[in-house]
Amino acid sequence: MSAEQLTYEAAVARLEEIIARLDSNQAGLRETLDLCREGKGLIEFAAAELEAVGQGLEELRLDELIERLDGAGPRAEPVAR
Known about the structure:
- By secondary structure, the chain is mostly helical.
- It has helices spanning 8-23, 29-72.
- The chain has one domain (8-71).
- It starts with 7 loop residues before the first helix and ends in a 9-residue tail after the last helix.
């Protein structure tokens, strides 16, 4: 799967396959190294995807707050007695 086709969900699914293979204790030394390298790359990809989504959610919250503030208009100050 190329980097252009990789999704968060696909990365997580592949990580689960890698973990299962490593847990089976059937991978040789070289395969274990290759799987660990692949897993590291997938973890980095997934973390970046989560960060991007988190940033997008934060931006949505800021946009919503700005809209609320813009829609509220000036507020009257309470009269001191």
